[in-house]
Write a sequence for this structure.
């Protein structure tokens, strides 16, 4: 089998390995193997093919991999659903809310609520901030600008 074909098979195996790990390490070696295949196609001796592979692997690993990882690991806002989506929302107090209970409207829905800290009293018509949802009860505190 020709040297270039061996390099291409090695590159293919490394690409398949990358699909299993998704670490962007094996893909750099696969690209370096393709550089070795290119060197083989140019008729370079096997020792120089290995040198070209090693240099390319180092270059891709130190130069290209950090850039690729930075682009793939952008901060994507997490989609919050269910009660998690209500945390941080404004609530309108419908019935007096204290540490024992009350009612608030959050995004058009009426929720039972308790204040935090429990000594805080929120009167009807005031605004509150949802801290968390505890079962079917919204834990709220006084809304401050």
């Amino acid at each position: 089998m020709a040297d270039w074909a061996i390099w291409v098979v090695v590159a293919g195996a490394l690409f398949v390995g990358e699909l299993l790990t998704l670490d962007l390490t094996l893909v750099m070696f696969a690209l370096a193997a393709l550089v070795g295949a290119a060197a083989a196609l140019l008729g370079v001796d096997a020792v120089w093919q290995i040198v070209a592979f090693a240099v390319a692997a180092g270059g891709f690993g130190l130069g290209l991999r950090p850039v690729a990882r930075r682009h793939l690991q952008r901060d994507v806002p997490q989609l919050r659903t269910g009660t998690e989506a209500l945390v941080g929302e404004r609530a309108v107090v419908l019935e007096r809310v204290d540490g024992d209970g009350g009612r608030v409207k959050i995004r058009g829905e009426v929720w039972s609520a308790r204040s935090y800290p429990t000594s805080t009293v929120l009167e009807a018509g005031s605004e509150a901030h949802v801290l968390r949802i505890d079962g079917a009860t919204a834990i709220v505190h006084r809304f401050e600008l």
